[in-house]
């Protein structure tokens, strides 16, 4: 028994004694920062889940195409009818107003993706108790959420770019007021999508306290579309409403980029608008980080 115990101990202490070599870790170079835990690069493959789910289900793909076409056609006919009796309203002509409204429809396509079919919504995970697996993976929950959201935004951007190219070629919408206006609109759209990502993340994180957030999501979509100017351009709203909306992050997601695109807002204010968007991103990022920590504290895995 003593010999067997010593042999077992020797085997555990030196596994290479039986011909199995262990790989030596290279010592870090002097002055190099310490390495943190490596997360698998393949985690970014999760960004393909939503697009693949859509493409492999012909019904959902046809539904997305039909909804985008129907919204675009109805929006175009509506604004053409509104400007039939006048050539200019609120400082814009019919072509500028139609372009703004149509781009607002394309913007809404960024949020048409529904994870319910792939059973990966926060509500489903909370109801089924599978949210714990987000905290057991080698990828952190925040990073996994970011990867999935990036894939969804990229998928929505493909639909928006396709619709934009078709409508621009057909003459339904106007090109940007100038090359500088187009670049300014593109820059503000990029930051606007980051704001949109954090706002949606905060809504999803509410599931850790409400479990089901369907009504909250519905209310958020209505508020987001109204305050961002996706349903009705903000220049048709009362002055007090526009002033109040200016203190919120929603204008930076749509109204500012599209106002720069159609020429209603001069390019000279681009620096100020980018600074406002960056400030909102910083505030929302800090708030999301704090809520993720509180949410993680509410999850118990294996009795821990």
Write up what this structure looks like.
By secondary structure, this protein is mostly helical. The protein has twelve helices and two strands; from the N terminus they run αααββααααααααα. The chain has helices at 2-13, 49-55, 58-82, 94-108, 122-128, 141-170, 179-205, 207-210, 214-228, 239-245, 255-262, 270-297; strands at residues 88-89, 92-93. The chain has a two-stranded antiparallel sheet with strand order 1-2. The chain is globular and about 65 Å long. The relative contact order is 0.11.
| Structural category | mainly alpha
Count every beta strand, where a strand is a DSSP E run of 2 or more residues: 2
Distance between the termini: 38 Å
How would you sum up the major sheet? 2 strands, antiparallel
Strand order of the largest sheet: 1-2
Percent helix, as a range, is 55-70%
Q: What would you call the shape?
A: globular
Q: How are helices and strands ordered from N to C? A: HHHEEHHHHHHHHH
Supply the number of helical segments.
12
